[in-house]
Amino acid sequence: MSLHLDAARASTSGAGRVHGRGIINEIKASGVEFIPCVPDIHTSEGLLRPLALEPGLRLIRVCKEDEGIGICAGLSYCNKRALLLMQHTGLLDSINALRSVGVEYSLPICMMVGLLNKEPGVLPRDSKHYGVRISAPILDAMGVEHHLIETDADLGLIKPAIDAAYARGHPVVLFIGTSPLP
Amino acid sequence: MTIRRDDALRLLARHAPDDVVVAVFTTAFDWIAIRPHPLNYITVGAMGLGSSHALGLALGRPDKRVLVLDGDGSLLMNLGALVTVAAAAPQNLIHFVFENGTYEANGSLPIPGRDRVDFSALARAAGYRKSYTFDDLGAFEAGIASVLREAGPLFVTLKVEPGIPPNYDYALMHAPHLRQQFKAALNG
What we know:
The structure holds two protein chains of two kinds. Chain A is 42% helix and 17% strand. Chain A is α/β, with parallel strands linked by helices. In chain A, the strands form two sheets. Chain A has a four-stranded parallel beta sheet with strand order 4-5-7-6, with helices on both faces. By secondary structure, chain B is of the alpha/beta class. The termini of chain B are far apart.
């Protein structure tokens, strides 16, 4: 039987959703200046489009997600913070770069990953969709920290996770569970 | 015609004594022997990502010139990076590709499109400001100073043959102290 998040989170109304404005506020509070990104229909309207207009953040449009891992690494040596935005399919495509650059080189590669097709209120590991279901277990096997941002109640996880990645030198993945409202 | 890779690197080292240099695989081993320097960055981790690391460095430190010494096989593994770099348009980035037509660090087997693909044309079509091709050491010597004075992103194809086989010391390539040394030198 599937585990479900609480009733409020299961709602598809605004109360059980996350707002892009809140995510952007947390990203900026974390000192992030650069956003390498590949568009993801799960986050495009509610997050990426407003991010592109946000003063103080520079979008770097990349052709493929693993490029973003190299870019984040280079920026980290300059003491510049970055957050790489993508869909979970891009995460799966970037595993070797994350393995080598993030884990083996102990670099603060921070990724925000849209879980396209994850059912509202359902934990990723219980999703009917294979790609959604396996994403977190793959990160567990790699020893990569990850968090689920499902509703506005989870926004407070973002800044501590990014701060810790830069302070200790490790990658972190912030999964976006529900498609953000603007 | 071709240029010996180590000859090209010696020439480049004379003209770029203190630049940030991202070098990959076989070229990296030659480069660190020819120009030992704390601003050498050889820890790209995954094949193909050299120019991506370099783009991050160039955007993070627009006051520093960043050279990337890429391989042809490596570039083919991340060809979209040409478009990404050109779109980001860092004026301080110069992208060299050492074209030997093979995956030299993996047994010297040929790359796809060997002797047919035109890397400088690809870069130009992707939107690099200018691209150059050198297959003769004398021409490279005559042109390199003016290339290095130009605003980027620039692309330079060097048609090379191997020099003396390098010591493939992968433990050194991935050594943590090199990364720490690089960061300290960059921010010192």
